[in-house]
Amino acid sequence: MKKFFTIGFSFLLFIGVANAQHVNIGVKGGLNAYSITNNFNIGNDLKLGFHLGLIGHIHFKKPIALQPELVFSMQGSKKTTLNYINVPLLFQYMFNNGFRLQAGPQLGFLASAKTKTNNVQTDVKDNFEPIDFGVAVGVSYVNPATNFGVDVRYNIGITDISKNDNANIYNRGLQIGVFYLFNHH
User: Which residues of 89-126 are buried (b: 16+ CB within 10 A; e: fewer)?
Assistant: First the structure.
């Protein structure tokens, strides 16, 4: 199933670039507020962190665009730090005033997982699934005169990231960031 999502995700990205009218690349970064939610809908304390990465912005016929990203993201909970390389593929509806509505799938690749107890850090990567599939929804605004923009997004993990059969655990998080698009029109 995970291979299917990866292949489908790559195919959509390839088709999008091939049919694009205009492509921009850029950089982004910002703050995260994440939690881990289990099957009893109990969230752990919020983990504050950051995200940093690259974005592409692919214009189709107005008002539709596609925004693939490659982002390092600090996630998890207050006691558990889960670092991911996330690859969202956001479909955007662009308004003429610079605002955009966006939603799409996201693949997360677990880079590291650590817990901290009594100032002792322990590697727990083997306790978590290596891939997290989710959905991202949000809004953004870009100022065409400066090529700078702001982005607010909520990421909803769909797959159980725990390797423990007794608990279903999901990533949930809010991201607030800024971005810059090179040669934006």
Answer: bbbbebeeeeebebebbbbbebeebebeeeeeeeeeee
Amino acid at position 160, single letter: D
Measured CA to CA, the distance from residue 22 to residue 2 in angstroms comes to: 31
18 pLDDT higher than 50: no
Nearest in space to 180 (alpha carbons), one of 12, 21, 56: 56
d(CA 67, CA 172): 21
DSSP letter, residue 45: P
**Would you say the pTM of this structure is higher than 0.90?**
no
Residue 144: pLDDT band (50, 70, 90) is: confident
Domain range annotation of the chain? 2-182
From the CB of residue 167, how many other CB atoms can be counted at a distance below 10 Å?
12
Q: Which residue has the tokens 């189709």?
A: 60
The least confident of 49-63, 78-92, 118-132, 159-173 is 159-173
For 49-107, write each residue's pLDDT tens digit.
Answer: 999 999 999 988 889 999 999 999 999 988 899 999 999 999 999 998 999 999 999 99
The CATH architecture that domain 2-182 belongs to is: Beta Barrel (2.40)
